[in-house]
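Reviewer comment 2.1 asked that we show a complete input and output for one of the modelled complexes. We chose the norvaline case, as it is the one discussed in the main text.
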Amino acid sequence: MVRSDCQAATKRLSRNLVGFYFYAGIGVGRMVVLNGRDLLSMADLSSAEIQAILELAAEMKAGRAKPRCEKTLGLLFQKASTRTRVSFSVGIFQLGGQVLDLNASVTQVSRGEPMIDTARVLDRYLDIVAIRTFDQKELETFAHYAQIPVINALTDWEHPCQVLADLQTVQEEFGSLKGLTLTYVGDGNNMAHSLMLGAALVGMNVRIASPPDYQPHPDIVAQTKAIAGDRTEVLITTDPQKAAQGSHVIYTDVWASMGQEDLAESRVPIFQPYQVNDELISRADASAIVLHCLPAHREEEITDAVIEGPQSRVWDQAENRLHAQKALMAMLLGAA
Ligand code: CP
Ligand code: NVA
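Response of the prediction step:
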């Protein structure tokens, strides 16, 4: 086996061992081991693993758990970022480690060095890497060729780290997740994909309301339905009012994601009926909270009144990026 095949096999073995412990039913909470794993998709995690990350994140946020790992995190970003970049950087500092900002423009990545070469080199310097790029396949290629844990810090396909923070925020609000209903209104994009998978994994009902040509990818819909089985609802609709009815979480994101700036203006009239405003949230449960991954375009996908209103939890949600990712890194690095 060449080194890269060996590395991929090691990561698969680590995943299967965790699966064995889980199915053997030997103290699930204690036996969750993420050491050496990747997080490329929300579906890389089991329900028990998500709960373990959220529990550790809550303990760390409360100051009751203080795992230490003096490791080096690389941030290989090919897109802009405020929250993800800063929360990962501060997170690794607080764990006792350090960060290297490997923005594409300051590396040979921007000059076309192949990802398979970059991966094998960075693997020998770094302990863990978070990657923000366009194509999910590029992330998967990197992970295949690197032995260190690789984290999806956003691709066009998924944004799982955001969803860990989102679930932490919902759990803080409602005390638990199971049986709650999450409604996402807007573009069937990377956020919608990771939310669908994450919500189904933790036993939440999930509803997505998007314009007809902007629905989530059928593969993610099928994957979500397979996870949900007949235990929870998965509704994909074009009707935002129906989707919001009685929901506990109303979530939205920009109508044009990074890399789609040219399409932003033409999308406004298409997405206008999908705006999260007072009328839409009045249909949700009285206890409902409103989430947005940020950055927000006020008066487009969400009104100023709603994002600044009493049901908005967007600032707690943004803060939780730090806690959830600290817990994730501590677990992937074997420090918790
Ligand atoms: N929500 C989020 O990922 O924000 P950034 O793009 O600022 O990192
Ligand atoms: N869908 C957005 C999320 C930003 C955090 C984007 O990809 O730009």
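The pocket of norvaline (ligand 2) is lined by residues 154, 189-191, 253-254, 257-258, 293 (CB under 6 Å). We note this here for comparison with the apo prediction described in Section 3.2.
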